[in-house]
Specification:
The chain is of the alpha/beta class. About 45% of the residues are buried. α13 (about 410-430) runs parallel beside α14 (about 460-475) and α16 packs across α17 (about 525-535). It contains 25 helices and 28 strands. Strands 20, 21, 22, 23, 24, 25, 26, 27 and 28 form a nine-stranded mixed sheet that branches. It has a six-stranded mixed sheet with strand order 2-1-3-4-5-6. A four-stranded parallel sheet has the order 15-16-17-18. Helix content is about 30%, strand content about 20%. The two termini are about 40 Å apart. A hairpin with an 8-residue loop joins β21 and β22.
């Protein structure tokens, strides 16, 4: 087992979160699902929470999670020959029946290979045997499965919760009947929405692309159509979301308002592949919020969709959420807003709880280009939205633009700078000089199943020239400008529309060290260019590849249900600068996704959501309590920052409303005595909290213990006097217990240590008190000592033992360090445990 203290951020690998399913002995089918990135990114993905909850509701399935180990963890695992295991029960992936990956973007491909390799599973599907799990993949990248076709047994096309149970039922039944692995894979290919690469003969188009041509056997469809959740209103939502122990990329409870997008942007793959528009009712979302917050303890709700501002009852929903959760200090975030659709006063309402930023995506700098890409709104509409939405609580306003969209000219590039500078002047006129403007530029990446799937990407040189034109105009005005790495965008473009020849490229790049390609610290374009050359291919040519109308496209074996003829007409409209009707129009059959019966556009009624009636809280200064708790087990790997987040959520789960500080950025009144080093356990930690109402201390302790994760246990609670010192000022000494090891901890070695600890000069240097040494076994002894705390500074166990090593010239090693207690000084100068000062 890897020593977690030897790697960065060990909390990523400990599991045991609230609502995680650790053991399920009755399950017959074992599944591991993964967002193949680091824990903080993967746990922010709502799709993972949906599948995890849905599958674990089935008695015969135990679904677990696994994430990509950070490079330092991968190195440690390879050194110790440790197999990659699930986070929940630490079961090696090789022992699972199914391992599923969510491919949300192309930069995850090498992480998938790294995880398979670490798990001891053959990389190529053709090399796997009877004892190997089935490897599945889904997500946006499954709409072009060919680059990863060598490595994946079956791809899920479309919305996973609509097909995953069909897959599980089939696999479970076939396994119980004694079917071989190859038989199971073949049967998966008969399920609607499942594409199995090995079941197709391959052909070649005029550009040399290799693609699936015809099925090898009866019962396998020529074209696999995506699965769609037709009854979205009643579809599954995780009412018991797994609450991450550490801060994640998006540390909030996600509420999905709708599927599909009414925007109709011609470049947007998600806008086409998620059709049709389907909205959930505001009341359903309110109910999901209540259940999820009660069972998780998040302090923020994220209202998610491809275009949240298009959600029909958005103002009513935001108003209801704010009325219900403003007293609890639960913030709202709206990550995806269309400038031309932002309802009045929404941003002012959400800013009441917490200072926020706004994010808009005009995409193009001129009205002409926005009309060409079917994102038509005027500059005046943008300025009007800024005037209406930017309030005193908006610390930043972010704008996203694309570079290299079809038909883009230098006039459109100048339009980006003009638009941003005009907005800066407008904010100054509004008295919002402190509101920062951030501009993000992303090179256009053509995607399959869009109106631009036939078009290539402009060259890297041209991308850089256009970025520099914008930067030269914005930087003198102190506008923060970021842009996506053009090299990474070039690789994305090559992978997004690539064929099966890219499997060799991906494997070569992986074997040469490619990992975490979305992270700038690890991305290396030279590694990828060499991988392309090794397969006789050119990265730049792949990215710039342009198809003609009648060409066979590498991804033709899967269908988003959007008619390709419709997509081509949308491309022609781009050239003419003509707008199209957006998705979400009633009775629309233009793109051919809706069938008018089971698959239709669904709009939520524009009505108020019911708010729970709560008794008003009594006004006053609040009640102060001091809590004593243990931090043990795997939670010793959680940092102090992790603990702060955990306690805020713990108190929310327990239904104990806290008092908040005043000011622009109010914080809950939680004060810890001292930060505990990562890896150290504690038998008596202390924290002061201020609640808005009175609780009997014993009741308070019991309610907290009923909601604790494994590793936290409350020992005592007392109410404090109004004038009691803060806990951080009350601590005067720490009591430590340190287990030491030596290869031969005999009586002589023990005596040497005891003599050293009686040396007054040494003790003076170390500033230790109440020293006690005892023998544990033939290799270990236990050193207990008290050390004073002065302004938060004290002698850490590592420092004390290092002095002993030098003085005694003994290879002493710390086996375990424990903070046993904290002390205050009473009136007579004696040290006493903190909690006893107020009665246990």
């Amino acid at each position: 087992m890897t020593d977690l203290l030897s790697i960065q951020k060990p909390v990523r690998y400990i599991g045991g979160e609230w609502n995680a399913v650790r053991f399920k002995p009755e399950a017959r089918l074992r599944i591991a699902i993964s967002y193949p990135d680091v824990y903080e990114v993967g746990m922010s993905f709502l799709g993972l929470q949906i599948l995890y909850g849905l599958l674990n509701e089935q008695p015969y399935i135990h679904c677990e999670r696994v994430f990509a180990p950070w490079p330092d963890m991968e190195e440690a695992m390879r050194k110790s020959q440790e197999l990659l295991s699930s986070l929940d029960s630490e079961t090696p992936l090789k022992q699972m029946h199914i391992v599923g990956f969510s491919l949300q973007h192309e930069m995850l491909y090498t992480n998938v290979l790294a995880m398979l390799d670490l798990a001891g599973i053959p990389l190529n599907a053709s090399e796997r045997g009877e004892s190997d799990p089935l490897i599945l993949a889904g997500g946006p990248c499954a709409f072009n499965p060919m680059p990863m076709a060598d490595f994946i047994d079956a791809f899920v096309i479309g919305e996973g919760e609509d097909v995953v149970l069909d897959i599980c039922h089939s696999v479970d039944a076939l396994r119980n009947s004694g079917a071989k692995r190859t038989e199971i894979v073949e049967k998966l290919g008969e399920i609607e929405g499942v594409f199995v690469p090995s079941l197709y003969e391959r052909g070649m188009n005029r550009l040399g692309d290799i693609f699936p041509l015809t099925p090898k056997m009866a019962g396998i469809p020529d074209i696999v159509r995506k699965r769609i959740v037709a009854d979205y209103e009643h579809s599954y939502y995780p009412s018991r979301p797994v609450f991450p122990i550490t801060q994640t990329t998006h540390h909030r409870m996600a509420l999905e308002l709708m599927r599909g997008c009414a925007g109709g942007c011609r470049f947007c793959q998600a806008g086409y592949t998620s059709r049709p528009v389907r909205e959930r009712s505001a009341q359903r979302i309110m109910n999901d919020a209540r259940e999820g917050l009660k069972r998780s303890g998040f302090n923020e709700l994220g209202l998610l969709s491809l275009s949240t501002a298009d959600y029909t009852p958005l103002p009513a929903l935001c108003g209801a959420l704010i009325r219900e959760y403003h007293p609890q200090r639960v913030a709202l975030s709206l990550p995806s807003l269309r400038i031309d659709k932002l309802p009045p006063n929404v941003t002012a309402e959400i800013g009441k709880i917490r200072a926020t930023g706004l994010t808009f995506a005009p995409e193009a700098g001129t009205e002409r280009l926005r009309r060409a890409i079917n994102k038509s709104f005027s500059d005046e509409e943008i300025y009007a939205t800024v005037r209406e939405s930017v309030t005193a609580n908006q610390s930043t306003v972010k704008f996203y633009f694309m570079i290299g969209l079809p038909t883009e000219t230098d006039e459109d590039i100048d339009g980006i700078a003009d638009l941003v500078l005009n907005i800066k002047r407008l904010l100054q006129e509004m008295g919002r000089r402190r509101t920062a403007i951030h501009v993000a530029l992303s090179p256009f990446v053509p995607k399959p199943h869009t109106a631009y799937q036939w078009q290539g990407q402009i060259s890297q040189t041209e991308i850089e020239r256009r970025v520099n034109l914008i930067a030269s105009r914005l930087k003198p005005h102190r506008i923060k400008l970021n842009w996506h790495d053009p090299n990474r965008s070039r690789l994305e473009a090559a992978m997004a529309r690539g064929d099966s020849r890219l499997g060799g490229v991906i494997r070569c790049a992986y074997e040469n060290g490619a990992r975490f390609d979305e992270w700038s610290d690890f991305f290396d374009i030279q590694r990828w260019e060499e991988a392309f050359r090794s397969q006789g291919l050119s990265l730049s040519e792949y990215a710039a590849k342009t198809y003609e109308k009648d060409d066979v496209l590498p991804w033709q074996a899967v269908s988003s249900r959007v008619d390709p003829r419709y997509l081509w007409r949308e491309w022609e409209k781009t050239l003419r600068g003509v707008e199209s009707r957006h998705c979400g129009q009633e009775e629309c059959r233009v793109c051919r996704v809706c069938d008018g019966e089971t698959i239709v556009t669904i709009h939520a009624p524009n009505e108020e959501a019911a708010v729970l009636e709560e008794s008003p809280k009594a006004a006053g200064q609040g009640c102060r309590y001091r809590l004593c708790f243990r931090k043990t087990g795997r939670l010793i790997y959680a940092s102090h920052h992790d603990l702060m987040i955990l306690f805020d959520s713990l108190l929310r789960r327990a239904g104990i409303p806290l008092a908040y500080s005043e000011g622009f950025h109010p914080h809950p009144k939680i004060v810890f005595a001292s930060a505990l080093p990562v890896g150290m356990e504690s038998l008596r930690e202390y924290v002061d909290i201020t609640t808005v109402e009175y609780y009997d201390p014993s009741t308070l302790k019991d309610r907290l213990n009923a909601n604790c994760p494994a590793g936290i246990q409350f020992e005592a609670a007392v109410q404090l006097d109004a004038n009691a010192k803060k806990i951080s000022a009350a601590v005067h000494a720490f009591h430590f217990g340190v287990r030491l090891s030596h290869p031969e901890m005999d009586a002589e070695k023990n005596e040497l240590i005891e003599c050293a600890l009686r040396d007054k000069e040494l003790i003076k240097i170390l500033r230790l008190e109440e020293i006690e040494l005892s023998r544990v076994n033939q290799n270990e002894c236990l050193l207990k000592y008290v050390c004073p705390v002065d302004g938060g500074k004290y002698v850490k166990p590592e420092a004390a033992i290092e002095v002993l090593r030098r003085v005694l010239d003994l290879p002493l090693k710390i086996v375990k360090a424990t903070r046993l207690d904290m002390y205050d000084r009473s009136g007579d100068g004696m040290l006493r445990p903190l909690i006893l000062k107020y009665g246990d």
